[in-house]
Design goal:
5 helices, 17% helix, 4-stranded mixed sheet, 346 residues
């Protein structure tokens, strides 16, 4: 596994040996660190097909296992796990790695995830070697509604839509067409790979829109990386405090100028009103004009707060505060970097 520059010392190793135990739903690799007994999520790895692990060798005066790489052709039988010295929570995940590179099995599909048929189900019919599937994202709303965490995420999204007066249920006018909507499920992860939040988004299929009918202007300025670096440099050079803000359900706040109609959310049709549609008064995620509508809303709000848009960078706003104090805001869609001399003004 590659160690990035930010996580190593000047003369530190650029890579370290680690055990592959599966695949993460984001497309990255799920890796087991044998020294600190932790699961790591990483994309930048090199898989050594002809090498295996000898986890029986021990450090002196230590219960930790010393990871020793052995050639597979020498003795595959040496790759045994010392179960007694491993934390109970990791035992089953480690056991999944015992199959050597020469023992290949055809994969089978199980609810959208690749698994191997060997040693998959115990006598009670439970999956014993694939705990990594428990944090997987649902492949459709039917699956999500059967899981409490995802069901709560769906309800939270619908509540946000209704709270923002985003739409209204009406009869579809003549010569108008609807846009389909679908549920998108996403796991928000922490830097260490742990689940931070279960997020459900109701997304409109914007590719069904027609220019001049469903939308007109779509452009919205977004801060470039160079702009963000410049703001950070000003902050550090002036020794100012810096804060980050994220607007929750930002696109649900953007008012629409066009007439846009969408279908009922999958799984949430109102009985007796199945033939009615929702007219959008504010944007959902997905419509082509959604970024511009949100940018117009946040821009008008900041102007009302006496901020002045930078003439050369339309994503940077400046405000002169009390006693000549300056307040800077750098806008990237719905994320804001806020910095200035006075913490109270921030």
């Amino acid at each position: 596994m590659h160690i990035p520059n930010a996580k190593r010392r000047k003369l530190g190793d650029k890579r370290e040996p680690i055990i592959l135990v599966g695949y993460h739903e984001t497309g990255a690799y799920r890796l087991y660190h044998p020294l600190n007994h932790s699961i790591v999520i990483n994309r930048d790895v090199k898989i050594c097909e002809n090498e295996a692990w000898d986890l029986n060798k021990k450090e002196k005066n230590s219960s930790h296992t010393v990871p020793t790489i052995i050639e597979e052709d020498d003795q595959v039988e040496q790759v045994q796990l010392d179960i007694e010295d491993q934390p109970e929570v990791h035992v089953e995940e480690i056991q999944a790695t015992r199959t050597s590179a020469r023992q290949r099995f055809a994969s089978t599909r199980l609810t959208g995830h690749e698994v191997t048929p060997n040693n998959l189900v115990n006598e009670e019919g439970e999956f014993v070697h694939f705990a990594l599937l428990t944090d997987a994202e649902p492949i459709n709303y039917e699956v999500a509604l059967n899981e409490e965490m995802w069901k709560n995420a769906i309800i939270e999204e619908l509540n946000s839509i209704n709270r923002n007066n985003t739409w209204k249920l009406i009869e579809l006018p003549a010569n108008k067409k609807t846009i389909d909507v679908k549920w998108i499920f996403k796991l928000k992860l922490k830097p260490n790979g742990e689940v931070a939040k279960h997020k459900a988004r109701l997304v409109a299929r914007g590719f069904m829109q027609k220019a001049g009918m469903d939308y007109f202007e779509v452009y919205a300025p977004v801060a470039r990386l160079e702009t963000v670096r410049l703001i950070v440099a000003i902050t550090c050079g002036s020794n100012w405090p810096m804060h980050h803000l994220d607007v929750k359900s930002a696109f649900l706040n953007g008012p629409l100028d066009e007439e846009v109609y969408v279908t009922h959310p999958p799984g949430f049709k109102i009985k007796g009103k199945e033939n009615m549609v929702y007219r959008l008064y504010k944007t959902l995620y997905g419509p082509k004009q959604a970024p511009r509508a949100w940018n117009k809303r946040i821009d008008s709000f900041l102007v009302q707060q006496d901020f002045v848009k930078c003439k050369s960078k339309f994503d940077v706003y400046v405000k002169k505060g009390i006693k000549g104090n300056q307040l800077l805001i750098c806008l990237y869609v719905d994320d804001l970097i806020v910095t200035g001399r006075d913490v109270n003004e921030i």
